[in-house]
Amino acid sequence: MKKFLFILSFVLGIFANAQVVIIDTGSVKLDTIKHWSVLGKQSLMINQTSFSNWVGGGANNVGWLAGVDYNITYEKDKDLWENIILLNYGQNDTQGIGVRKTQDLINVSTNYGRKVSKSWYLSAGAGFLSQFAVGYEDGNNPEATKLSNFMAPGYLNVGLGITYRPNDNVNVSLRPSNARWTFVLDKDLQTAGSYGLKADGDASLLQFGFLGTAVYKVKLMENVNLSNTASVFSNYLDHPERLVLAYGMVLNLKVNRFISSNITVDVMYDHNQIQKTQLKQTLGVGLAYTLNNGVKRSERKDSQWWIKK
Question: Is 278 helix (H, G, I), strand (E, B) or coil?
């Protein structure tokens, strides 16, 4: 939890100082920085249930989920640099059971591309994936079997390839040359077979193979947006047929500027974690604030946010 608050404060501090300067020249406002765009969302979702003399039964509970989701893009001439920061942490406190973790994610990635033709870029990128706190087989119950922890596992991908980005809602990266490090820094989890480790006491595993990622965003209707992400990894050196597959969906229903509802679905398969398909689903309603300084990557009228319509 302390790690989450520290990283959250750090991220918000960066963007609080990343100000956009606008000069008013009369009827038209000119942006002095035309190459950066920042789209960020901070959210706090709350859910609560209470019972008193309720014949149907039930247990009082309260839960919360805090999240930070930023997309920072720089584009000038043939250069395209995209950065994504996604942080989520949530808990639920149920009477008679105690506090259990409901969400825990650190996902940071960066990708630089040099345009070689329309919508196509030669690219190089890196991504980091882990979690903030220890995870148990039974939520946050320390008496249950420990399954994971911060940097146990932690994943670092670094690779070269191509990126297809025809517009701001579609982004596909293909990296035929990609190194994937798996870190297991919790000594209790450093056993042979855990997250693919070869021997007891190993703290990391290096794989080399193909990584493909895709993002597709669509506006279903006014104030209803759907975001899809998918990835696939194949290790050239050991069982390339054992694909690491991941898919994530976020359906956002915006009530007004400060209130929204999110439905998320995550599906994953990783032979080194567990030889079963993993599924996670969440539903939350609460406060959300979006920072959007607009898309300034082209001369399209629909992306010139500084011109009033």
Answer: strand
Contact call for residues 167 and 204 (beta carbons, < 8 A) = no
CA–CA separation, 54 and 208 (whole Å): 57
Which single residue is written with the structure tokens 């630089």?
112
Contact at 8 Å (CB) between 86 and 109? no
- How far is Cα 259 from Cα 270, in angstroms, rounded to an integer? 35
Q: How many CA atoms lie within 13 A of 279 on its CB side?
A: 3
Scanning the chain, the segments in alpha helix (DSSP H) are 2-17
- What is the DSSP secondary structure assignment for residue 187, as one 8-state letter? G
Q: Are 37 and 297 in contact (CB under 8 A)?
A: yes
Structure tokens at 137: 């087989």
| pLDDT for position 16 | 43
For residue 115, how many other CB atoms are within 10 A of its CB? 17
- Residues paired with residue 220 on neighbouring β-strands, in sequence order: none
pTM for the whole thing? 0.84
Tell me how far apart the terminal alpha carbons of the chain are, to the nearest angstrom. Answer: 43
pLDDT(32) > 80: no
In this predicted structure, the answer to whether residue 21 has a pLDDT above a threshold of 70 is: no
Q: In the chain, count H helices and then E strands.
A: 1, 16
Q: Which residues pair with 62 in a beta bridge?
A: 48, 93
Of the candidates 39, 42, 37, the residue with the CA atom closest to the CA atom of residue 8: 42
C-beta separation of 110 from 82 below 8 A: yes
